[in-house]
Amino acid sequence: MVVRIDGSYGEGGGQILRTSIALSALLGKPVEIINIRAKRANPGLQPQHLTGVRAAALLTDAEVEGAVKGSTRLFFKPRDIKCGSFDIDIGTAGSISLVVQTLAPVLLFAPCPTRIAISGGTDVSWSPPIDYMRFVFAKVLSLFGARVEIELIRRGHYPKGGGRAVLRVEPVKKLSPVSLEEFGKVLEIRGISHAVNLPSHVAERQARAAAEVLAKLGYRAEISTEVRADGLGPGSGVVLWTYSESGSTVGGDSLGEKGKPAEVVGREAAEKLAAVLKTGATLDPHMADMAVVYMALADGRSRLSTSEETMHLKTNIYIVEQFLPVKFKVEKQAARYVLEVDGVGYSR
Asked: Of 39, 309, 313, 336, which shows the fewest CB atoms inside 10 Å?
């Protein structure tokens, strides 16, 4: 039976496509998505979306209709999940992180370990930076028993791209449920401030500004600087993350852009992290909407908290509930929102 999804629902962006394709590929359920990105200035499929679709099709030998740039309708009918070694080129500065989002849930239930090298953008707007995926996304997934590793080879920024990363995923039989409502005591805050084809002082100023904001709030941060000349750049950014005694990890990030002082980049990342820490939530807004897929697949009840109930989160919950027999509960508790669901204990 075909699952039909209206791509203009809720947030109406590419997240609907990514989650729908991931769950279709994983569960073996055909899906038809209409009105794809209908609310956007450039509606329809764009290169980074097409890369995720084509990669999922490659991994599942899927029958696909409508996989062309600008298409607002897509039909995806998967077969068996493959595994092994693959190489994918987005061909633009399209986000590598968003392709990882699409493929990770599928590969966790593949018949063998998989390695996928992906070329494109590592640090681009409207997408989690690659360092966030390496140090927050992968860490949170480990709480579910998932073994996902992301290796950065070369950075790529808008508009030239040229970045490269490697995704490695070990299959699991089932995902474990996670119950973490309180972030607890901060054990450490770490970060990376990078600059590509820019003076080294850019990375240093970003790092210093971020550390100063956190120091005023009583936190000590270890932020390393990374200065590179191997990208098509220029570009810069900061990603911060923190580990707690409860095992939680949350992050904050900011990208540099022409005319934006390095100090502003650093402060933005620190302020985003501080805003989440203030609520005591165990998921930041980036991770909350990504986590619902794994919560729904896990074997039992998961309870996690987030600092915001974003439209992305609401939309992703809706999409997950179209594919799986689950019902999420979202409750406001003090300064945070608690997400609860009884996962289906999916296995292949």
From this structure: 39
